[in-house]
Amino acid sequence: MADPFGVLDMAPSLLLDPEEIERRWREKTRAAHPDTGTASPEASRETAELNEARQRLVDPAGRLGAWLQRQGAENPVAPTLDPGLTAFFAEIGSVFTPVDELIDRRRQATTAIAKALLAQREVEAQLSLQEIMQSIQERRSAIEARFPAFEDDATQGRLDEASDALARLRFLQKWEAGCRERLLALLEE
């Protein structure tokens, strides 16, 4: 993947305004679009590259990963969970396991009465998943709030905290996706 900051002609910063990212992406996409008559023969490749750059910069973990690469971080992701995240993962597991069992029971239910008997548990499971997602969002926001400090640290060659934060963000994203997947499964008819 090309450097997303360079693709969108943006300063390599963690503090980018999402509206500015969108504006740059629209301008560059418009210029590369084959219908403009001024597009290059490689317009589809260029458009795909612009889309990927936008996606990475809009996503805090993607932006942090790209920024760390620009800073020269060799291995920007820590291989293990910190103790706080390990405890949170255990909490998530204690919600995911019964939700998965409930989803399986619901799929096996063939009659309306069997499905109705599971309705209250489904509502409780949805609420539990939403609580976990709220906690994930709070943790992600706390990490994003540290972005200015990461940039300050980088001026002194310190990237360890930012690298650890990237690992945490990626775990949180994975768990959030798991919550969404389970919520959707519970909402299926």
Give a description of the structure.
The model has no long low-confidence stretch (mean pLDDT 90). 23% of the residues are buried. Helix 2 (18-32) packs antiparallel against helix 3 (43-58). The protein is mainly alpha-helical and 189 residues long. The chain folds into 2 domains: 4-58, Helix Hairpins; 83-187. It contains 9 helices and no strands.
Task: Give the topology, please.
Blueprint: H1 4-7, H2 18-32, H3 43-58, H4 60-71, H5 83-108, H6 112-117, H7 119-144, H8 147-154, H9 160-187
Helix pairs in contact: 2-3, 3-4, 4-9, 5-7, 5-9, 7-9
Helix content estimate: over 70%
- How many individual helices? 9
Radius of gyration: 21 Å
Distance between the termini: 40 Å
Overall number of structural domains: 2
Shape: flat
Instruction: Compute the average pLDDT.
Output: 90
Fraction in beta strands: under 5%
Outline of the structure:
With 189 residues, the chain is mainly alpha-helical.
Structural features:
189 residues; mainly alpha; Helix Hairpins; 2 domains; 75% helix
